[in-house]
Specification:
Order of helices and strands: HEEHHEHHEEEHE
Structural class: alpha/beta
Largest sheet: 5 strands, mixed
Strand content: 15-25%
Radius of gyration: 26 Å
Mean pLDDT: 88
Low-confidence stretches: 1-20
């Protein structure tokens, strides 16, 4: 039977000992990455001025967006409005205008979108107006209708009726989302409706999250 010399045995033992911590570090690294990809963390609201106040949501887009995606403006309006009205989200508002009534009002009063913010809040009978200007909404790059490269972007502003400057925004932010998360996704992979629905959900999330605390994945893709 072949035996190893004490020197060789010592060398093998040393090599095994030195390599063990490296394997452990690699394992910790893999587990840490997996945790980050699946874990959520609390993100605080950026604007808390809806607490104890009434509000209305106004989403505005240009004619080009509405022509390409009929009804998308109303859909985003209703989704943001309903999200903020959900007691589970803890916005703390004392009242809001129901989505169906809100959409009906703006349909019957299209001139309202150009009114000074303070005047619009007064006409609506609310303390706050959240205005969302949807300045980009597309499912692909211009000139390439075969590959999905969806983008939705909006500027967000809050009018405070009780402010000394009610026609100026008391809070402003911008939100931009994209879908799909990978490049090279074509019509053969998913439909345009899937892309549009994902963009609506993501821009709704990003705008609504400005106004309430929420759990957000550490490595969120949008």
């Amino acid at each position: 039977m072949m035996t190893r010399s004490p020197i060789k045995r010592w060398a093998l033992l040393l090599a095994a000992t030195l390599s063990a911590p490296l394997v452990g570090c690699e394992l910790v690294g893999v587990l840490g990455t997996a945790y980050e990809e699946s874990a959520d963390h609390l993100v605080k609201a950026q604007y808390e001025g809806l607490k104890g106040k009434t509000y209305a949501v106004l989403v505005v887009s240009d004619r080009g967006i509405e022509a390409d995606f009929p009804g998308v403006t109303a859909e985003i309006t209703a989704r943001i409005n309903d999200r903020l009205a959900d007691p589970a989200n803890g916005v703390g508002a004392t009242g809001h205008i129901q989505s169906k009534d809100l959409l009906k009002y703006f349909f019957n009063h299209p001139e309202s979108t150009t009114k000074p913010g303070g005047k619009l809040a007064e006409d609506l009978g609310v303390d706050r107006v959240i205005r969302v200007d949807l300045y980009e909404f597309r499912v692909n790059d211009p000139g390439n209708q075969y590959v999905w490269e969806g983008v939705a972007a909006a500027s967000v502003g809050v009018i405070e009726r009780d402010s000394i400057t009610p026609d100026e925004y008391a809070f402003r932010s911008t939100s931009r989302v994209a879908f799909p998360d990978k490049s090279g996704i074509t019509q053969g992979d998913i439909s345009g409706q899937v892309v549009m629905s994902a963009l609506v959900k993501r821009i709704t999330d990003r705008v609504a999250w400005l106004f309430h605390d929420h759990q957000e994945p550490i490595r969120i893709t949008y």
